[in-house]
Amino acid sequence: MRVIRTLNQAKKMDREKFKIPRSVQQAIPIQRIWQDGIFQVGNKFSKSFRFSDINYSIASKADKTEMFLDYSELLNALDSGASAKITLNNRRINKEEFEESLLIPMKGDGLDGYREEYNEMLLSKVSGTNNSIQQERYLTISVHKKNVDEARTYFARVGTDIVTHLAKLSSVAEELDAEERLQIFRDFFRAEQPQCYPFDLKAFARKGSSFKNWICPDSMEFHKDYFKLDERYGQVLYMQDYASYIKDDMVSELCDLSRDLMLSIDILPVPTDEAVKEIQNRLLGVETNVTNWQRRQNANNNFSAVVPYDMELQRKETKEMLDDLTTRDQRMMFGLLTMVHMADSKEQLESDTETLLSVARKHLCQMSVLKWQQADGMNTVLPYGLRRIHTLRTLTTESTAVLIPFHTQEIMQPGGIYYGQNAVSKNMIVADRRKLLNGNSFRLGVSGSGKSFSAKEEIVDLALSTEDDILILDPESEFTSLVEALDGEVIHISATSDTHLNALDMDAAYGDDKNPLIEKSEFILSLFEQLVGAGNLSAKEKSILDRCTADVYREYIRGGFRGQVPTLKDLYRELMAQPEEEARGLALSSELFINGSLNTFAQPTNVDTKSRIIDYDIRELGEQLMPLGMLVTLDSIFNRVIQNWKKGKTTWIFADEFYLLFQYQYSADFFYRLYKRIRKYYGFVTGLTQNVEELLKSDTARLMLANSEFLILLNQSSTDREELARLLNISDNQLSYITNVGAGHGLIRCSGNLVPFENTFPKNTKLFELMSTSAGDFRGKK
């Protein structure tokens, strides 16, 4: 039969001359490696691709079906001239290194008490979860070619197809180079040994040393049903018997064990024409058997006999298989599922094996331990691209796709900030907004959902672990106590406040331009437009304002930006001194805000605007002063960003009750410009609001929200949920995580990944008291 011939041909080409390895290096079947990640293993060349997880487990039924069909398309696209291996790798992370990357070091600056509390909270989240296990996914393609150049051309073509099909699943795929591939094997063979130096292929070649020395363990021992790598025990299992119906979560359940383990699914696609001929031959054989049986019954005068059940079932299944291949876009493929797991003791190994076998039994499948084939089994599981176990099972595309290697997305970016725990896997969510294309963020949720608490938690982490500047626009006096506790400066801005912010503050670093006066002149034009109404300034009035601005700053600039900074009172006097009638009109229009009762921005600044953490408290501004106050505050914030940029320093901006900014045209336009440009100034904007519907009335705000790569969505009202679902393409199943949930629960959207999360903080801490709006709340209410 042709299919058997195809399989026999694959076995024949894979066959190697058996040699007893005399060293651990010889036990590793890699023969040659190239810098671009192509390995020669046995008689084949192989290349691996790493691909990211997707949110399969929390997807709706319709979305799951779509993902399943897209994954089936990927399997259908596999070339019949090659074999594929999908590998899930549970890799243990070095706990000390993991904690070191996450915990905040002490600085002796009076804030170490808060650092200790924060570190204790982080450690409590690490223990009892799978954070010490990181799961990675690989797809390894292996093919027989005459030389590496032919193989390279083949992998370039196939690699494009793989990346494209995985992108359709929202999974990001990347080719692995030689160092990245070898790192997989080093982590498996030498998990207990810290890496002293990175792999350098050229350095190894110069020394005449084999690359295998970098990955191989000190010893390997293979026994009847287990093996030892140094002091660790391992065992290889394989799927001996498959159920007629398998649930799509079996693979993820097998990999739930918090141990070093690998699970591989080997796939050998069969050319469709050969598969069809084979099934037709099988069907012909079944029909012949049925005809012969009926002839025998007729000979015995038994004309009413029903065809036996097993024959009828065989006929039905063969017809279905033929129908799958000819009309339902299915392919025939040979499949093999193997897995290897590691433990620190023989007892632990046996206990884990029983757990894995029981998981398989739960799905009506039979897994077994390989006897006398542990070495071949290990080489089959590891992503070399080899298949040395031949217990293959005939499958269709769909029955292969049921062994789907996806579960739930994780967000774990080294060097990032802790934002909570994955609601599905309970793993920590650590994200680094600096690494995103657009690190700006929104936090959206109803009152009491925990927006302020979440933002304060991020501020605490930034304040305690970095030297970055933090600027807060605070319309509700939410952040005052926290900023004071972190040794920041609170600027209370109101008509009656003793603190003043000079609208004409300017130093040599003002603005993005070489001439700071040009930027300041534009600001003053905007300020007067705010006073007299947008579009109401004539060309003559603009010219007068520009002239007066230059006159007011002349002496200050000549003095090297030292001495007394001009104020709006100086500008008022300059306007009154001008001969034009329009100048006096401008002075009169601004008199309330310069010499009148709302003159808080017309006096010299008397607060520390150079502090690392500043809270601009604008709660008491009032309706009349709010537009002007917002403008002056935003000008101060933007110029701090520019000054920090020139020093190479990062600035984080937090704007509470973000919808208020869009009630005034100038502040809405300013924030949109800032949002688009701030990335190049090493800055990041975070907007918080409970009035999502109000915010989404602004097209500008909708655009900002849709383009944000980092969003935290907490409990939402029904109307807001519908709007967000349309804007961000959130499924009904995912919406359940922001529907009637407790404070601190919701969805995090990071770089296209949408992950459900939960976040709690120990109540009996000083930090909780500072971050919680009300001492009686579990979370801060906003």
From TrEMBL:
SUPFAM superfamilies found in the cross-reference section: P-loop containing nucleoside triphosphate hydrolases
Domain of life per record: Bacteria
InterPro entries (alphabetical): P-loop_NTPase, P-loop_TraG, T4SS_component
Pfam family, one: P-loop_TraG
Residue intervals passing through the bilayer: none
Every TraG P-loop domain range: 623-741
PANTHER family per the UniProt record, alphabetical: SLR6007 PROTEIN (PTHR30121:SF6), UNCHARACTERIZED PROTEIN YJGR-RELATED (PTHR30121)
Classification via NCBIfam families: conju_CD1110 (NF045971)
Protein name: TraE family protein
Annotated source species: Schaedlerella arabinosiphila
